[in-house]
Amino acid sequence: MFNEKMYRLGSKRSTIREIFEYAKKRSAEIGAENVFDFSIGNPSVPAPAIVNQTIERLVKETPSVALHGYTSAQGDKSVRDKIAKNYTRRFGAALSGDDIYMTVGAAASLTITFKALTCEGDEFIVFAPYFPEYAVFVANAGAKLTVLPSDENMQPDFTALERALNPRVKGVLINSPNNPSGAVYGEETVCRLTDILRQKSKEYGAPIYLISDEPYRELVYDENTKVPCIMNCYDDSIVCYSYSKSLSLPGERIGYIAVNPKATDSKAVYAAVCGAGRSLGFVCAPALFQRVAAECDGMTADLSVYKRNRGLLYKGLTDCGFTCVYPDGAFYLFLKAAEEDAAAFCEKAKKYELLLVNGEDFGAKGWVRVAYCVQTERIEKALPLFKKLAEEYGL
Amino acid sequence: MFNEKMYRLGSKRSTIREIFEYAKKRSAEIGAENVFDFSIGNPSVPAPAIVNQTIERLVKETPSVALHGYTSAQGDKSVRDKIAKNYTRRFGAALSGDDIYMTVGAAASLTITFKALTCEGDEFIVFAPYFPEYAVFVANAGAKLTVLPSDENMQPDFTALERALNPRVKGVLINSPNNPSGAVYGEETVCRLTDILRQKSKEYGAPIYLISDEPYRELVYDENTKVPCIMNCYDDSIVCYSYSKSLSLPGERIGYIAVNPKATDSKAVYAAVCGAGRSLGFVCAPALFQRVAAECDGMTADLSVYKRNRGLLYKGLTDCGFTCVYPDGAFYLFLKAAEEDAAAFCEKAKKYELLLVNGEDFGAKGWVRVAYCVQTERIEKALPLFKKLAEEYGL
Q1: How far apart are CA A6 and CA B120, in angstroms?
Q2: Distance (Å) from the C-alpha of residue A116 to the closest C-alpha of chain B?
Q3: What is the pLDDT of residue B18?
Q4: Dihedral pair phi/psi, residue A317, rounded to 5°
Q5: Helix axis angle, A376-392 to A304-320, nearest 10°
Q6: How do beta strands A237-242 and A169-174 pair?
Q7: Which end of chain B is more exposed for a tag (fewer CB within 10 A), N or C?
């Protein structure tokens, strides 16, 4: 009577949603101030003031029909030109507005890209830990997702990659800074990765695309943490960007796809992106927020709270004896469960009102994700509880 | 190397886009005031003042993290509740917020609905003339689209429908007021249609869904033109709505799907809608405009311009001797080409600087679409040119 797969996708609550509901219930029982919810990756800092200022200005200055009217399917030309120019200035990769396709956020960037690239029998590769919706998006395009392991520093397992590559692999998807681990792929990692892809592309006589999901691009906290520009490292690359985290606008759904102009037949790939966007029902990205994005591109919300939270949490947890991946970016910390069964570990944490997400949902057994996009005071109050949890495990 | 179908979809210019480019070129040659572009279905009246007032108020009053943050995937609960309540008040069909799923506009409403319903081998039926993107959206779900004829008044050919129905037909898609013909399905048409669907659903032992695409619902111009509420006429119905035309907000991409709570297993159908939305990459509808929609639901831009244009154009064209469908709604007039070949007719019209769209793109051979969402003055100036065109045909 309806599509069973879609029914299951729509009726199965995600773990994070389960925790969200539990947090609501538990807050009603013991007071919200006593529940420490580290489950949700929702920006906790306001959008920079320029966002609302730009909205107010545009609404005042622009005739309604122009402001709220259709833009071209790929996005308003002046918006794309501005973002491309800024990209070129910031990263040195020469982009034009015609390489950019404005989207309704990162999820749309990804479903469109997968749909644009996928031919029958195609396969995409991702490294664990990874954002679980990737599997949904790849399945929507009719492709297969192969999950490969990472090492303890959450860098790709290159031996596994070389073994897994085959002529049906259409692309490798990376996400750095990473959700859920906070790991960043530095230049060395990216070079090693792209060397392999270049060699294999040559061997197979067809490009293996490098798809870079970059909603956390600006969320890095140390001077010496550099997020390499993928466009400069590998020609057959597609960048999927979203303003959700950098500008704290996750609900407004605005982002873009940038097709590397140096990619093989890049104009045709861009056309396939346009076709996929049309096919999936994205007529154009929201018009007002396209203009807001162009105006605020490259700016960020005040990320100092995340930096403070990261330092506090990492030090606090390692002082307790926990093993953590040092999070170079994003707003997640990956914590090794103090017992083999991470689900049991999360349950024990719950006794102390600490709500964590089992890393198994991200393809990483034995780890849990701690989202630190919260008020700093929540972390300060939670650390003594983490201490008790550590003591229970005799750490 | 990429998906050929998507490449073709993205690189083939639509006829309307072709005309748009021609109009630009021609305007540069002879001045925009001398080119009469009736090709584009873009609202020509501003959004009602309350839209921008609501945006400004929300931006001022709502904390940024709440205003621009994620809503639940199906849309903010209070938004859905408000729209449902209003729907119930306006149309008498009892909806709750949990029957409504907020979308990124009508196209998204449709791709999600088709994806939610389609099982392997399924088929959807639509009556010509129809919006050509329907074919793209149905194909995206992996279903087959069957196009059936309408009569001279652009009402369904019921004999053809009865012949075409079979157990693989998952749904019938209607669009009233209609793009491109402006026709409205009155109560008699809807009753006859739903009687057939009810009988066939019973015969096959499975519901045939009636999917009602209603972006033009509020765009009717006569006291006695009633657009029946599909929810009240047929249980297994799904309404796909968009605020693009009623509020003149086509670029902002905001609409909803309403699953009739009286539909067979309506909660499961709703869950499949949620799953399809997730699968296609719609995380949530744009947050700010969800709230604007809730605040302005049921209101409209000033539609009196369209009414005036319709009257002027219909009288003018019939006075010239052209045969037209009387447009009860939307902002399109369907004109019978004065020769068999509508493409040749459009070319002749071009000589008088009149830009019309061949109805063949909408599955209606021998007709052309005249979009009258333009400044009234354009119609006044165009009518003498239509007169000359008519004279060329000896009308």
Answers
A1: 13
A2: 5
A3: 85
A4: -75, -40
A5: 10
A6: unpaired
A7: C
pLDDT, residue A321, reads 97
Q: Residue B277 contacts by C-beta under 8 Å, 6 or more apart in sequence?
A: A10, B73, B74, B101, B103, B108, B112
Distance separating alpha carbons of residues A177 and A185, to the nearest angstrom = 7
| Whether the model pTM is above 0.80 | yes
Kindly list the distances between the CA atom of residue A289 and the CA atoms of A54, A59, B133, B155, in Å, as whole numbers in the listed order.
Answer: 10, 11, 25, 40
**DSSP string for residues in B321-390:** T--B----BTTEEEEE-SSS-HHHHHHHHHHTTEE-EEGGGGT-TTEEEEE--S-HHHHHHHHHHHHHHH
- Give the single-character DSSP code of B184: -
- Minimal-distance CA residue of chain B relative to A275: B10
Taking an 8 Å cut-off on Cβ atoms, the answer to whether B251 and A287 are in contact is yes
Rounded CA gap, B284 and A110, in Å?
Answer: 15
Phi, psi values for residue A368, rounded to 5°: -130, 155
| C-alpha–C-alpha distance, residues A11 and A21, integer Å | 15
The answer to whether B104 contacts A281, with C-beta atoms less than 8 Å apart, is yes
One-letter amino acid at A283 equals V
Question: Cβ separation of A2 and B269 shorter than 8 Å?
Answer: yes
Residues in chain B: 395
Cβ of A284 within 8 Å of Cβ of B110? The answer is: no
CB contact set of B244 (below 8 Å; sequence gap of 6+): B43, B105, B106, B215, B250, B252, B253, B254, B255
Cα–Cα distance list, B350 to B35, B324, B346, B386 (Å):
9, 19, 6, 11
Chain A residues whose beta carbon lies within 8 Å of the beta carbon of residue B375: none
Q: Tens of pLDDT along A18-51?
A: 898 899 899 999 999 999 999 988 999 999 999 9
DSSP B81: H
Nearby residues of A12 by Cβ (< 8 Å), 6 or more positions away: none
A74 exposed, middle or buried (CB, 10 Å; 0-12, 13-18, 19+)?
A: buried
Cβ atoms within 10 Å, residue A350:
16
- 8 Å CB contact between A260 and A209: no
What is the rounded distance in angstroms from the CA atom of residue B391 to the CA atom of residue B393?
5
Does A167 sit behind a cis peptide bond, omega within 30 degrees of 0 on the bond before it?
no
Classify residue B54 by its DSSP letter.
H
For A236, which residue in chain B has the nearest alpha carbon? B1
pLDDT digits (tens, 9 = 90+) for B233-260: 999 999 999 999 999 999 999 999 999 9
Amino acid at B256: Y
- Percent of chain B at pLDDT > 70 equals 100
Distance CA A175, CA A133 (A): 13
Residue A53 in tokens: 């200022």
Is the pLDDT at B13 greater than 80, yes or no? no
Q: What is the pLDDT of residue B21?
A: 84
pLDDT band for position B338 (cuts 50, 70, 90): very high
pLDDT reading at B310 higher than 90: yes
Enumerate helices (H) and strands (E) in chain A, giving the number of each: 15, 13
Please report, rounded to a whole number, the percentage of residues in chain A having pLDDT higher than 70: 100
ipTM (interface predicted TM): 0.95
Report all structural domains of chain A as residue ranges with CATH numbers, in order of start. Answer: 4-47+302-392 (3.90.1150.10), 70-296 (3.40.640.10)
Q: How many Cα atoms sit within 13 Å of B339 on the Cβ side?
A: 15
